[in-house]
Prior knowledge:
The protein is an all-alpha fold and about 260 residues long. It has nine helices and two strands; from the N terminus they run αααααβααβαα. A two-stranded antiparallel sheet has the order 1-2.
Amino acid sequence: MLEFDHRKNAMTRPRMRDRGIYLLPNLFTTGALFAGFYAVVQAMNGRFEHAAVAILIAMVLDGLDGRVARMTHTQSAFGAEYDSLSDMVSFGVAPALVIYEFALQGMGKFGWIAAFVYCAGAALRLARFNTQLDTVTDKRFFQGLPSPAAAALIAGFVWVMVEYGIAGQDVRWLAAMIALFGGLTMVSNFRFYSGKEINLRKSVPFFVILLVVLAFVLVSTSPPEVLFGVFVLYGLSGYADALRQLLHRKKLPPLQGGEK
């Protein structure tokens, strides 16, 4: 009987370890989730600058959790699912509610429809990303605008408007267009640079460090305008890439009559 109990315990212990949760990467994911929830609370209280900054902080934390998990070899199925749920709150629900509370609630049905298009676009973007994760061949590019970048686009817009004292009602149509642009671009087939081939463990030339320092200096001079401008350019980069590919196809020489 004692031997049977010993074998039973020996079999169950590895299973309990398999069900364990890695603390370090999930701390970053929890921080991103908290930042997204905090953004919603602040938007409901009319503190839109705090809400915008919280979304940007969530974007930074979301970028760290995956890299930390890979560097420490603590990837898990639980972490992947938890990260997706956190992304839906921080980059789907939170930006939609922030932009609605800031500028769209006075537009009637069109206002909440524009916010919902963004929210639905984020959900569809995350679902497509999860289902195609094992089939992606070129990891240098995302298919569709990443939800953190779309959320940062909305957060940057709100932050700039607050910084210059512009009321949301005065730019409600522009806010609606940005929400629709973000939502539809997330579910598009345009390519967006992912930066996944960047290896932080490898040595880099000195000028790369210099560029990083200059980037921090540039952002510190005027964070709202610089960050919003960066994400506007990133959001347009997919369209520019598609246009470049279209022009390249048109410039190709026509096939000969006997070729197929």
